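Structure ticket #2291
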Amino acid sequence: MSKDVYEWWIKALAGEGMELHADDPQPGFYRIRRGKAWIPVGIWWDEDSTVADGAALISLVGFSDSARECDPLETWDTNSSNPMSIWLVAAKHPVSEEAYRAAFDTGRWPDDAPEANRGIGDNLPEEPVDQIKVELEGEAEIVAQFLTEPVKTQEEADRVGPWVDRLRKLAQRADKIREEEKAPFLQGCRDVDDKWRVPVAKARELAKRLLQHLKPFLDEQDRLRREAALAAAIESDRLRKEADKQTSEAERADLQRKASDAAQRSVVQNPSAGRTGATVSLRHEKAAEITDYDALLTALKDRPEIKEVVQSLARRAAKAGIELPGMKIIEITKAA
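Resolution: structure written out below.
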């Protein structure tokens, strides 16, 4: 057949948008998915016929050890809710003749990811986690070998996509098994939490109500102690000044002792209730009250945790396409 016979396939392979007709198969080389595998599909005119009325198109589907001839308009997946012909499905996936023949002869496509040594038969461990570890060891071995050289050809680059997909699916499979294995324990934890949630919450609530009921008494005790401590501090200061005026060493020493006793009483002790090991006390804690929000932000702006929060908010705004004052939206590239 002349090159013109393959014009549709050649242009489709080059990425040109070609008009597709359901009842007009075009000679060429394609592939079609069956499950997870890509199956080679070749379409050509019967060598015993001519491109004219009555000429027949032949479709060869499968690898060399299982290929079958059929009509390219034959339905590909009869179990599909939207069955289509072999031609319509394959037309979306043109491949080079070299790739087709390599796959047909060897059962592997040039852009297939390298096969890892995964162990066979009885060599695989019984535990799923150990099986996946064996697979990962094989993957790690060929990944390490691949990473020793930079990617130099499109064929090498094309292998990475299926390879990454295979590793991601391996991670998904491992994560699914992990979730299934963890599920009974999580449900057991939830059941225990549900059983004890009400008693725990009720005990804490009753304790909280008791503390709230006790607090006015402790507040009053705190007020009285602070008043007594202030009076003792004033008395201590008066006694020390009076001691300084005395000429008699004995009287000065007596006043200094009394001043020291008063100073000790000027230290405020937090009021408490209960006994050793079961004490409730009034505690004084420091808290922040913001009086100038802008000034506080200025004071905190150089702290690492603030920068992290601001960066996170800026990233969120950029993803939403919102450019805020003090930032700009940039494009970054990464392999995904």
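Closing remark: Strands lie at 28-34, 37-45, 57-61, 68-70, 272-275, 278-281.
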